[in-house]
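Hey,
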Amino acid sequence: MYAVILTGGKQYRVKEGDVLAVEKLDLEPGRKAQFDRVLLIEDGGMVQVGTPVLDSAMVLGLVLENFKDEKVLVFKKKRRKQFRRTRGHRQQLTKVRITRIAADRTTITAEDLAEEKPVPVAAPAPVAKPKPAAAAEKPAKAAAPAKPAGKEAAKPKAAKKPAPAKAKKASKE
């Protein structure tokens, strides 16, 4: 048994147990999704086709996760004009597992539509690690040797020598 459903402007051929990525649905993981825009249902040899949708059919699914698709790079260029633009885009998607295909909505029970309450998982309390016995018995560090109290006096600077006298140029006389 399979069905063709319409969601997010796209058509998907699904059967029970399929996992598919559809355009983002406003549902948290663990919630149930209802697809009521069913275009076609095939059950054995019997095929029901809607005009455009089957009013009495419904497909149920379980939201597994919301995620982003791989990055698509959009590159625009106009030749000889020095115009180039690069943009990236990641589409928001929802992963859904198809749980039930019903040709007639009246066969769907309240149990199928009921939301399962997620059980909150309590984080385990962190366990303090005991200190090793050897670390607790370490003796204190020995004192470092004393440094000399002060620096030695600086040497006096050497006196500057006078610059040599310039030789006078001989004049042409």
